[in-house]
Design brief:
heterodimer; A: 283 residues; mainly alpha; MetI-like fold; two-stranded antiparallel ribbon; flat; B: 264 residues; 12 helices
Chain lengths: 283, 264
């Protein structure tokens, strides 16, 4: 009886243990000079890989690029997401909800293809429209000043609905009595929004914010396929750095050090997220 | 105000569907005619995409997604059930939940180098089963998360009766819990499948033979190759790779409703 209980609980927990073992193995690899391209044996270098990576201007730039991407994409997605969730909530147009899941089902590469097609400055959809108005389309992806923003725009286009869905679920969970009481007290629309609906869906908004932050750090496919991190290194995010410096040249030691640094950076958001989750489970 | 809200809802729905609509229309563009929307729709884009081996890539994606989901369900169903129902202490539960939340929050890229190195030694690189095992980094935390939540939800009475009849934990799991959690497990499978269907980074790193590439990687290759401006071909391949997840959600929604109806 007792044994079978542990037998049932084991498989998933062993999987999680393998995950943790993988992190520890990464930590171990990060302290070696070790390349799969060379025949020489791994050589212990302590914190050498970390010092080399942290001192690399390309890495520093990638931290800034990632921070700019994460901050702007998350702020725009959460702000627009809350606004649209509120509009759907007060208009009662629930038919829109299933449609909003569509962008989340479409593979990211398909969105990239769509974006090529939309913003290509010679033959894209917007370029044709601009040409018929006598304007010319700027080369958004080819200009180091705008390339990152073109990628942010695509991310906002695809992932704002995710925020809408979570926040709307939170708003729909507000008990009807509360709204009634506020209405009887004479609350008008705007005070109702700011004093009742938004505060009461704050947990959902916070959860959406954290999930978007966590996910925005993982920006790779959109950047890699649209710009390869260019022009120059103007869109090279942390995961692009990991790919070009660690994985592509099979430099396992450097790659492992970058992985650990990325994980440490994400922990700034991940740990408050774990705390939020535990708080809701404890209740 | 209400009108503004209506307008905003319509706008949200339109922007959600716009990319898919553009991709579909573009997929009908005949080669060499850069006119959008196409005046004379043709299916040549689809034929060309299949000729380039995109059918094989779709099949590879399907195989990987099915293997991934099978492993995830096999690992997370018993554990989720046991954590919710077999009287483990509150502390065990909270530690497990914290670990699941943490592994969901850390980026999968953090484990990619370690997995690459391990797969290099184990000869699992460039192998669809290997990719499915690596994908557990994405789907196992998700699966445990959802199954545990579902296991808390269903009614205790039937299980209690089975327990009084002398059924042990394993029999209760197989004969009572699994059937009752079936809709939840189906939903978990669908969500996990969607999560890995469009995945790019792991698939691009861990596979390299042309005939093993998943649809996302193949499409990425096409989009950065000389087919960059063959909108018809690119869009056709994109549209084909959006169909399975959309179909799956619709199908699963139907199964889930049927199961819910059958229960009453």
């Amino acid at each position: 009886m007792r044994l079978s209980r542990y037998l049932l609980v084991a498989p998933g927990l062993l999987g999680l243990a393998a995950y943790v073992a993988g992190l520890l193995y990464t930590l171990y690899l990060s302290m070696y000079y070790y390349s799969l391209f060379r025949a020489e044996a791994p050589r212990f270098v302590g914190l050498g890989n970390y010092l080399a990576v942290l001192g690399d201007p390309t890495f520093q730039k990638s931290v800034l690029v990632t921070a700019a991407f994460v901050a702007s994409a998350t702020v725009l997605e959460v702000a627009l997401g809350v606004l649209f969730a509120y509009w759907i909530y007060i208009s009662g147009r629930r038919w829109a909800v299933p449609l909003l899941t569509v962008p989340l089902l479409i593979p990211v590469v398909s969105y990239v293809v769509f974006w090529y097609f939309a913003v290509d400055f010679r033959r894209g959809v917007f370029a044709n429209a601009a040409a018929s108005l006598g304007l010319s389309m700027p080369n958004l992806l080819g200009d180091p000043g705008t390339a990152l923003w073109a990628i942010v725009a695509l991310d906002v286009l695809q992932l704002t609905p995710f925020v809408v869905l979570i926040v709307l679920a939170g708003m729909l969970g507000i008990p009807g009595e509360v709204l009634w009481a506020a209405r009887i007290d004479g609350a008008r629309r705007l005070p109702m929004a700011f004093k009742v609906v938004l505060p009461m869906s704050m947990t959902a908004i916070l959860a959406a914010l954290m999930l978007r932050l966590i996910d925005a750090f993982r920006i790779f496919a959109k950047v890699w396929l649209l710009t390869k991190g260019g022009p120059g290194d103007s869109t090279a995010t942390l995961e692009v750095f990991l790919y070009t410096r660690g994985i592509y040249p099979l430099d396992i030691g450097t790659g492992a050090a970058v992985s650990i640094l990325i994980a440490a950076l994400v922990s700034v958001v991940a740990i408050p997220y774990v705390y939020l989750v535990l708080r809701t489970w404890r209740a | 105000m209400a009108r503004l809200a209506d307008l905003a809802v319509a706008l949200a729905a339109a922007t959600a569907l716009f990319p898919l609509a553009v991709i579909f229309l573009a997929s009908l563009m005949p080669p060499g005619v850069p006119q959008f929307p196409p005046a004379s729709p043709s299916t040549e884009g689809y034929q060309e995409a299949l000729k380039l081996g995109f059918g094989q890539s779709l099949l590879n994606s399907a195989v990987v997604a099915l293997l991934t989901v099978a492993v995830t369900v096999a690992l997370s169903a018993p554990t989720g059930y046991a954590l919710a129902r077999l009287g483990f202490s509150r502390q065990t539960l909270l530690v497990s939940v914290a670990l699941v939340a943490l592994t969901r929050a850390l980026p999968p890229s953090s484990l990619l180098v370690a997995i690459y190195d391990a797969f290099w030694r184990l000869n699992l690189l460039n192998n669809l089963l290997g990719l499915a095992i690596a994908y557990q980094v994405y789907t196992l935390p998700l699966g445990l998360w959802l199954v545990t939540a579902f296991a808390f939800d269903y009614s205790h009475e039937v299980e209690h009766a089975a327990q009084l009849d002398g059924a042990g934990p394993v029999r209760r799991f197989l004969h009572v819990a699994l059937p009752m959690m079936a809709p939840g497990i189906a939903a978990t499978a669908v969500l996990a499948g969607i999560e890995v269907w469009g995945e790019y980074l792991y698939a691009a790193v861990l596979l390299n033979s042309q005939d093993l590439l998943t649809a996302s990687v193949k499409l990425g290759h096409l989009a950065t190759s000389e087919f960059r401006y063959e909108w018809g071909v690119l869009a056709a391949a994109s549209f084909l790779s959006t169909l399975p997840p959309v179909a799956f959600v619709t199908m699963a929604a139907r199964t889930m409703t049927r199961l819910a109806v059958a229960k009453w």
